[in-house]
Specification:
149 residues, mainly beta, globular
Length: 149
Amino acid sequence: GEFTEYSVIGDQKWAIDEKYGYVTISGYVNEQNLENEDWLISPKIALDKVDAAKMTIDHVIRYSGNAMTDCTVWVSEDYESGNPNNATWNQIPTSFKDGEDWTINTSAEMNLTPYCGKSIRVAFKYVSKQKAFQIFRIIQVVINKKKFG
């Protein structure tokens, strides 16, 4: 589906790499560390007819040193459009780590079961400040849903 990019701070934005098919962002431009807060927000995901749901993310994070705080995952039940900071978001614990090369890593499973019976949006938030020489690439997002009985 169509994801929405929203830049709260900074000129850098999430972009699609047409050649390889992933989305990427970096706050390091022309050898400068630039401040950014950028969100990549999913369309509505219906979990109303399932009893369990989990998500994994194939990703590459390079040069961060702070992958667990600079690259985060959030869920909202009330986001519709515009500035994501005007909605209610719950952070989902992740297992992102800085890569030592360009190897694609798969996150541990993230539990979305508390949101079953609802429609949600998932967002990827990228933050860069003084140390912006980092790259966050999302290769694939997989949400597995189960209905019991």
